[in-house]
Design a protein that fits this description.
By secondary structure, the chain is of the alpha+beta class. The protein has one domain. It is 39% helix and 11% strand. The strands form two sheets. The protein has a three-stranded antiparallel sheet with strand order 2-4-3. It has a two-stranded antiparallel ribbon with strand order 1-5. Strand 3 and strand 4 form a beta hairpin. It is elongated, with a radius of gyration of 18 Å.
Length: 130
């Protein structure tokens, strides 16, 4: 466990790490030394999932909840106009666990807020057009 996330139960954990590019530095992206001596960092999808799981009120990706994780991710990102994760991305991360310690608004409140903001923007455009 590193901070509030844990990858020890992820199958084929090593494929989540990529070679670090020269000069890469971020306090939010874990790095490690590989067995061959190369510096590696977690890939972008893994890092995003670590930070997004609390936002969708899921603490661990499992075989049983993979579909629900996919649905919740797409609900949240569709409300923002994008959908960055495939179902395969989710299933590759089965076993990823995060501690429920981040303070985030409930998912339904965020979704309604995002949809309201989009609808308000559409209303303003309609009003400006008339």
């Amino acid at each position: 466990m590193s901070g509030f996330w844990d990858l020890k139960n992820v199958k084929d954990l090593d494929r989540l790490w990529i070679e670090e590019q020269d000069g890469f530095s971020s306090a939010f992206v874990p790095v490690r030394q590989s067995v061959t001596g190369r510096r590696e960092r977690l890939n972008d999808i893994t890092v995003s999932l670590i930070y997004m799981l609390p936002a969708i009120e899921i603490v661990e990706i499992t075989e049983e909840n993979s579909q629900e994780v996919f649905v919740r991710m797409h609900m949240l990102f569709s409300a923002q106009g994008s959908a960055p994760f495939s179902y395969q991305d989710i299933t590759r991360h089965r076993g990823l666990r995060v501690e429920p310690g981040l303070s985030v608004p409930p998912m339904n409140d965020r979704l309604i807020g995002l949809l309201r903001a989009a609808a308000t923007t559409a209303l303003k455009k309609e009003q400006q057009a008339t």
